[in-house]
Amino acid sequence: MSSSTFRTVPSSADVVIIGGGVMGAGTAYHLAEAGVTNIVVVERGELGCGSSGKPIGGVRAQFSDPLNIELGNRSLRAYQDFPHRPGADIRLDTVGYLFLLTSERQAADFETCVSLQNSLDVPSRMIDPAEAQRLCPYIGTDGLVAAAYSPTDGHARPGLVVRGYADAAARAGVTFATHTAVTGIDTTGDRVTAVHTDRGRIACSTVICTAGAWSGRIGDMAGVSLPVRPVRRQLAFTAPLAPPAPRIPFTIDFSSTAYFHNSDDGLLFGLADPDQPDGFDTTWTPEWLELFRAVARHRAPALADMETIGGWAGLYEVTPDHNALIGRSDELTNFLYATGFSGHGFLQAPAVGEVMRDLHLEREPCVDISPLSAARFRTGAETRPEAHVV
């Protein structure tokens, strides 16, 4: 895929997309596929250098909110079809997602959610601790009440997805201005008229903000409130395992958020540190691993002392209710946004790309995303509770 090597950006565009991660690349692809021309994607670093750069991304439709279930399920189907449309291998591994539940309350809540998921064509089911252990031999059943499992979930490689969307979009004529920072946004009345970058000004008809953890700053430039805060998340890789690890589901201890799954010739470990302060720091600090090991000693003892050979830190883009911001600005009619996914952006990206295409073309989207408007936080509208947040 050709990124821009020119020193200045195009002077005008029909659509400027700010952010070259999975949301920006996917939106560009879906717009171009629908015949939209003169699209410029502005990215301050390399494509996928923000949250989309994570080594492995889970894909699932197991949620508690029907809107998230629909977005996840539609995206799962798109990821299954990715080798044909847009045409790239994303190393999709359909190993399923396994949520480990340690209280009767959790089990009851997940049972309700499984019924909802089943009604929306997601083949999830409740299973007992013994079956959970058969699916994932690493876990111990002590203290386990039940588990929730969906065989069609799994994981893929976000970097390959970004590249696949971007390559196809570039073939369709989309310009990718990488290593280009947005420095300001011009507005006149209720419209954005131009985006300023450190490589020049782009006059435009529509702006779409897909800037992830940096979206609050972009919103501020336009006078649009996008309540997104950056929170560091860390993960680690084990040394190669011999004999090789069994093929296991993406396994999550729901109480602690500790998770693990296959990764190349070993395993990947992750856990959300509840004391992690907000900020843009993505330094990997091995000390957090002790939090994971403490959980593993009880839940999956064989993992507790496995040798690790490094790790990675990235940013979640978190909103007050841990649900996305998707929509069109009330204040600026040609400012659209898709951000704040709070950890489930990658798995919803294909469906959201379709939604952004439809919003731009003023067509009815495949799902009603009006409840995800950023205005919900200031109008007193009902926020979207999502229980299955990791």
From TrEMBL:
<dbReference type="InterPro" id="IPR036188">
    <property type="entry name" value="FAD/NAD-bd_sf"/>
</dbReference>
<dbReference type="Pfam" id="PF01266">
    <property type="entry name" value="DAO"/>
</dbReference>
<protein>
    <submittedName>
        <fullName>FAD-binding oxidoreductase</fullName>
    </submittedName>
</protein>
<keyword id="KW-0560">Oxidoreductase</keyword>
<feature type="domain" description="FAD dependent oxidoreductase">
    <location>
        <begin position="14"/>
        <end position="359"/>
    </location>
</feature>
<dbReference type="InterPro" id="IPR006076">
    <property type="entry name" value="FAD-dep_OxRdtase"/>
</dbReference>
